[in-house]
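Supplementary material to the annual report.
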Amino acid sequence: MLTFTEENYIKAIYRLSEGGLKAVLTNEVAETMSTKAASVTDMIKRLSNKNLISYEKYYGAKITKLGKSQALTVIRKHRLWETFLVEKLHFTWDEVHDVAEQLEHIQSPLLIEKLDEFLGFPTADPHGHPIPDKDGKVHTPTLIPLSESALNKKSVVMSVRDGSPSFLQYLSKIGIYIGAMIVILDKTEFDSSMEVLIDNKTRIFISRDAAQNLLTTALMK
Amino acid sequence: MLTFTEENYIKAIYRLSEGGLKAVLTNEVAETMSTKAASVTDMIKRLSNKNLISYEKYYGAKITKLGKSQALTVIRKHRLWETFLVEKLHFTWDEVHDVAEQLEHIQSPLLIEKLDEFLGFPTADPHGHPIPDKDGKVHTPTLIPLSESALNKKSVVMSVRDGSPSFLQYLSKIGIYIGAMIVILDKTEFDSSMEVLIDNKTRIFISRDAAQNLLTTALMK
DNA sequence: AATATTTTTTAGATCAATCTAAACTTTTAT
DNA sequence: ATAAAAGTTTAGATTGATCTAAAAAATATT
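Predicted assembly:
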């Protein structure tokens, strides 16, 4: 069984490896975990001994099958808890993350099964991120950054790429949420900002950065 | 802020001190925590430095006002989570303890407030133990062990003194639960066992030990 | 009261997680 | 291609939590 800290590292490494594809560098991990490179090296050795990653000095860490499944379990728990916090306890979108960071480490498979059932077996969390199932399977719809959507085409916000509190707060202030319907009314050439219509009601300008962070699916019909 | 382990110690010490009244000995703590006396001495020094207990060598630990309030917070969280597990996730009575032991250490006052509200501000957990309120106030009805109840008087099971899984399983097998109505039909002199009637339906014999562990309130007619 | 027993504390080790500072690789730039 | 810069690892320390073994204090026994 993994410690609290090991779980956090394997999760971070999984994220940085983009699902287990590429090797992850020490400093990348140090930065996302707000810790020092030396600490990361130590931990990487430990995770390697437990066969969660394979590790070559000065080259980086690659996540193993076992490591991936552990990471997905933690992510599953995190997203189920976030869903619980928002849907049942009425937390707002931007309040859930820190609490879910703690709750994700509770060890009880029974608890997670029952929570999943209680929530009605959701497939995505309140940020629109998919929730891996019990066996670690993730069903991901193809997501297009709003910045790449065509003019006048209806899209639904499914997810955000950068879930930082400040971005989430900004979104909620301007009325964008998971499930919101967005149409691009106009694109400005020189700075790639755009004017959009939210839920057929609100017209607003958003920056290129914001549009790149909003992941959408095209609305059929 | 207290560590996970410090919270567990202060809770155990509070319990053993019977609500902060009497001093608690090193070995008592070691036993209930399944640890060694030397570890307890170390921790007692740390808790003393944090002003959660006052400590005199070879005499024992007395819980302070601050310590008591911390302990009550942990207990409050534990009991709210147990209530959640049973009422919302349909855990059984005897499955909740280990999970609640973990959940009680989640740090988020907002979470506990919202959980409390979600549960409808319960005053007792599924074992019938009172849930301290936000300010640490506990309203405790006077509890009488069933063994001391009078013949033919109606009582309601409010709590159990010994919450061990084996006892809880036994109770649930014979149909006794928190809220059950019990009447003593007959007491046997020589071994203090008794025949009782549960919910006006089931007649059963229970031992003196069991009767002493069942805490009840007299039912006003 | 003197001795034996029990309880508690201290001393010294270990392990997880972290850090700083120094040493060592790899990469980049001149 | 060599020097400078950047990135990574090792060495050595620290803190929290735990342990065993030995010393010290309190309690019980004869």
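The first strand of chain A starts at residue 53 and ends at 56.
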